[in-house]
Amino acid sequence: MSRSSPCLWTPLPQGAASPCDRYKHACCSHQGAVFVLGGRSTALCLRDFWSYSVVRNQWTQLPCKGEVAPEELEEHSMVAHEGFLYVFGGTLDCAYTRWKCPLWVFDIGKHKWVHWQGKKSVSQIPTNRKSHSAVVIGSSMFVYGGYVDMRGSSQDFWRLDFDSMCWSLLGGSQQAPGGPGPGPRHGHCAVAHRETMYLYGGLRGLREQRDFWSWNSGSRAWSCLKTMSGPSRLVGHTAVAYRDGLLLYGGGQSLNAPLNSLWRYSFLSQSWQRLAPLPASTDPPPRIHHCCLGLGPSYQPPTMDDSTTTTTTTTTTGGSLHPRLEIKARPFKNKCFPSPLSYLGTTAEGAIELQTFERTENGVSEGPAVVVGEGKKNCLTFENRAFSNRWSCEEVDEEEGEGEDLVDMMEDSIVQNHPDLLLLLGGKPLGQQATMAVWQMTLTDP
To answer: Which residue in 137, 366, 370, 399 has the fewest CB atoms around it within 10 Å?
Structure first.
């Protein structure tokens, strides 16, 4: 068993212009922005769509009306790929047949829902389902299981090719329930790492499971991963890929008994490790049917080109960046040592402090945060309660039309060098506040 990695949990209070608290919703991230769609409030199924900028600590409501936009959804899936969001399943009725597929596509750049078009001659199209899983491997989305009305738990395994927008069935109800693979399943979680999908727990019929499976897209073969310890039987939990492993949070054996345990699985050692909060950390809330997503380099696919996360950019389409931006843009660094955190209202031993850097002739060295003095003003403030540092730059002459461009460039630089952060959004039980409950977690990994 590897050395324990304690974690720091912090609630992030939200402003009035925020989505209401919910569960059974769908979330995903794209280039530093977080997207939240649908779900259930106390008594209603929701049809709202939001984006959250972690840099600006600001929510924006996006359009979700029109014939190509989704209706009220719950227990659906949403993934991002090359500037588009793909939403599948979660409708409340059985209106969808094999001739019509519950798939919606959102163009992030244009902020609008668009028609998806596949080959009309293809007869194999998945029907509506809930509590399934969806992951992206390469240029495809893989959807497993789910609860299908009148049929119950499904073991259908579908692939959507993003290039052709065509569906193909990789495995389905024609297989024997005891055959290779997880079998009929809903309420489980799945993540993708390199060319492999990992699937844990869920409901098989009416019984919660704690089995752990992997599926390799090259060999197209399932393998059952057996470990001596790990999470209990779970439904309504979430998982995200983290470095050479995954993080699994929450869930439970029933809707009335959610858990707040955080587990880490290593693909290298093939072992589970339960992660404990720091002594001064706020205890994370028990949650079921919530969403978790990771931001920062450790949550990015390992195949990503490292050049996309360099700390200083010198050229763009159209020439060099503004020289002030090249000087002021600094990467973040997670560093673990005792330090007072004013936003926690106490001195948290072993807390996470984010330090800034300054560029020297010999490279990058640690330096104090930028202080805004007389004759200067903030052109971007990174003051989310998850982080206590301010990002500032020299005053820009607005009449030259450079101010907004510099703000956008600075925000892009911060996104590229974002510290590792796990966000927990919503889930049941609903919070006492009307706005969505949001928590952040940082690991103390070196």
So the answer is: 399
